[in-house]
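Put briefly, the fold is written as integer tokens. The lines below illustrate.
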Amino acid sequence: MSGFTRSPDPSLQLRQQYLESLEEPQEFFLEELVGLGQFWTHDDGSYAVTHGKTLVEFFSPNPKNSTSLLLHLHDQDGYSTALVKSYDLDLVRSCKELGWIASVGGFLFRKRETRTRTAFHNVEMSAATPVDVDPLWEVNDDFFARQAEITSLAETGKLWTVRVDGEITGCGVSNRFIEDSDAVDVGMMVAPSLRRRGLGTHIVSEIANRVESAGLRPICGCGASNTASKATLEKAGFVSEHQLLSFTV
């Protein structure tokens, strides 16, 4: 079987075919890595994306070839980890056939059972403006990797500034990153001084309620070690039935 070839761009048609093959929407964290990754293509129509030493996406229109193709790509690229959504059933099967060991790297929330309303006094939420970028960066605590992310989200109408008693104390995000999907990735950031008081639950609930009122579907995710975020999302009505699996190659 022939090997993979580095490719500057993905086949949009193949990526669309892959995304449509999934029973649940794409994970935003992986979508970010895909955007920064190295693309590989195969003559049989398969493709893969690696980011550093991590495989972040793989699709073959002929699933029976997936296991051998993963080995061929490993010989070429030398990736040591594969991040796989638990509902990417073909890739999960191939990883297990190769004897790779899985651990839970994150929780993926694709269901919301209850539409909650939370009460947090003197809180206001409004569409972010350019003047909010610097104050949001000041209260940022590893939620945003770069200040430019805040600017981009504000410019595209995906960011909500949260104020308590008139002071900026966090933000909410509603990111519909795949236009033809009804899925909207939601998230929140709270200043360290106001954590563990219910503000995070309030923000996520409000954002999710607005998304649902628009006839769309809120989704989200968090790292497996981030127990505080997991609890916040669950209090906002989200249920995790899927995981982001980390396979050691």
Q: What stands out?
A: The CA atoms of residues 222 and 229 lie 7 Å apart. The chain is about 30% helix and 35% strand. The helical segments are 12-21, 28-35, 66-77, 89-97, 133-139, 147-155, 199-213, 227-235. The two ends are 21 Å apart (CA to CA).
